[in-house]
Amino acid sequence: MANWLVKSEPSAYSWDQLVKDKKTFWSGIRNYAARIHLKALKNGDEVLFYHSNAGVEIVGIATVTKESYQDPTTDDTSWVEFDLKPFKKLQKAVSLEEIQPAKR
């Protein structure tokens, strides 16, 4: 099982919204390097849920429930999305400062 990271601005889609929705799809990603990784996702893989811009911290762990499939927001079949559901909220969020190596 692999581990991944998704990021979202809390004002656009937060961890709390994922918990409320119980599941979601992750679409609209238009980055070529990310697409390679999206196609490698497997059911059951764990996904760290990162709040970007506001908060800048990992707040929870989600689980992939459906592997990559055609992203319906585009007619280009090379872009994909996947489904995930919340697994657990972290007792203590992990900040960006804790993730990045110390600058010298």
Query: Over the alpha carbons, how many angstroms does the gyration radius reach?
Result: 14 Å
Describe the main β-sheet briefly: 5 strands, mixed
**What share of residues is helical?**
10-25%
Give the helix/strand class.
alpha+beta
What is the terminal-to-terminal distance? Answer: 34 Å
Shape: globular
Strand content: 35-45%
Strand order of the largest sheet: 1-3-4-5-2
Order of helices and strands: EHEHEEEH
Query: How would you name the oligomeric state of the polypeptide chains in this document?
Result: single chain
- Give me the count of strands: 5
Tally of helical runs: 3
Overall average residue pLDDT: 93
Low-confidence parts: none
Describe this structure in words.
This protein has 104 residues and is of the alpha+beta class. Helix content is 17%, strand content 43%. The chain contains 3 helices and 5 strands, in the order E-H-E-H-E-E-E-H. It has helices at residues 15-21, 32-38, 96-99; strands spanning 3-8, 24-26, 46-51, 57-70, 80-95. A 5-stranded mixed beta sheet has the order 1-3-4-5-2.
Write the layout of secondary structure elements.
Blueprint: E1 3-8, H1 15-21, E2 24-26, H2 32-38, E3 46-51, E4 57-70, E5 80-95, H3 96-99
Parallel strand pairs: 1-3
Antiparallel strand pairs: 2-5, 3-4, 4-5
